[in-house]
Amino acid sequence: MLKLMLIIFLFFTTISANEKKAFINIFSNVENTKVFLDGKEIGDTPIKQYEVVPNKKIQLEAIVDKKYYANNLKTTIRVSPHNILTYKLKFEKSNSQIFFVGDDAELYLNGKFIKKLNDSNRLIDVNSEQNITIKLQDGYADVSLDRNITANTLNTIKYKLKTIPKDIRLYTSTINNLMWEDTKNAANTNINWEKANIYCQNLQFAHHKDFRLPTIEELIELYENKDEIYNGFGGKFYWSSTTYDDEYKVWSYSIVKNFDDGTKKTSIKEFENGRVRCVRDIKKGERTDNEQK
User: Distances from the Cα of 92 to the Cαs of 130, 149, 225, in angstroms?
Assistant: First the structure.
């Protein structure tokens, strides 16, 4: 009898202890939102499985950068015993304005066309945003800018369009932050790795002299965007700068990419012939144009 009473006592003790536990998950649409519960900072979002006292009113405060968002958030929450409450915070961007000073041009914000700017139409309303990408374009002349647009301010942006040199428009394609050679030589020339490497080192377009063989990762990215290349690809594989020697130091290999079937393999640098497609890194602020043909 005593043993049975002890078991019953332990059972109810366990239930009583569990009733004192509750948890909360907090997520936010703004990265690293600071969260306070009853005035105590508990960290940045996302916050998972944070233990709170059940059935108690808790003051939740979430703080974001007010340079970009309309306001912080304060609310009261209550979590039932044995529960895990998931709370999602949503903040709206603050309003702002941009006044553009420069040539007539088409305006793009973060890659989306907004409108044509002219002398009577240069002020636009926008949401405040950090690192907004601004592109202004008129034919083969354009300029790209990165700006922080802060809340409730008039942001004045001055710009001047720059024209792309003709040979860059005709003989290269720009994909992400890389400028690729786009010529019939690149599509049809069969050479070994050493000659391909020298070819890229000597390649010049519009005063650019920093072309190189691409890495295998860059060739894979090019394959995924191969429709951007005007002159197409040959049936052979393309050399990469990603190389290694075999165990006995007899042969040296390059990891190559076949643009017919998308396969990746290794080829001997000295004896096999492949295509060459040179590339260069686009420097910050440099003039480029994705519509080059």
Answer: 14, 15, 35
Interatomic CA distance for residues 85 and 76, integer angstroms = 13
> What confidence tier does 167 reach under pLDDT thresholds 50, 70, 90?
low
Phi, psi (degrees; rounded to nearest 5) at 198? -65, -40
Classify residue 16 by burial, with Cβ atoms within 10 Å: 0-12, 13-18, 19+. exposed
Sheet with 47-52: list strands edge to edge. 47-52, 22-28, 84-89
- Per-residue pLDDT reduced to its tens digit, 78-130: 998 888 999 999 998 889 999 999 999 999 998 899 999 998 999 999 999 88
pTM of the model: 0.47
Kindly state whether residues 72 and 49 are assigned to the same domain. Answer: yes
Q: Which residues contact 225 (CB under 8 A, 6 or more apart)?
A: 175
CB 77 within 8 Å of CB 60 = yes
Structural domains counted in the chain: 3
Would 63 be classed as within a structural domain?
yes
Report how far Cα 122 is from the mean position of its chain's Cα atoms: 29
Residue 187 and residue 155 share a domain: no
Give the whole-number percent of the chain exceeding pLDDT 90.
Answer: 44
DSSP string, 100-116: EESS-EEEEETTEEEEE
Does residue 139 sit in the same domain as residue 240?
no
Q: Are residues 76 and 111 in the same domain?
A: no
**Could you tell me if 67 and 6 lie in one domain?**
yes
Position 226 confidence tier, pLDDT thresholds 50, 70, 90:
confident
Backbone phi and psi for residue 78, each to the nearest 5 degrees, phi listed first: -145, 135
CA 75 to chain centre: 33
